[in-house]
Structure prediction request, 83 residues.
Amino acid sequence: MQARMSNPALIVPDALQALLALATSTRKSGVPPRTLDLVALRASQINGCSVCVDMHSHDLKKAGETDQRLFAVSGIPGAAPRR
Prediction:
């Protein structure tokens, strides 16, 4: 996968600090942590950051996320949960 952009955390001063502050803030929002992690995975896919896609997918698998839901993330917004 070719990245669409350079990693802002590496080229913009204080970007990593801002990204970590955003993550901390969203964790306090009441949205389930697994949902936030799936959103982070999808944002990484859209941004074309293969390092982030790898990291988020591994973290989600470690947390017990199913392969089916991980694969469905790439189809959002068209991916509806199976019942």
DSSP finds five helices and no strands in the chain. The two ends are 32 Å apart (CA to CA).
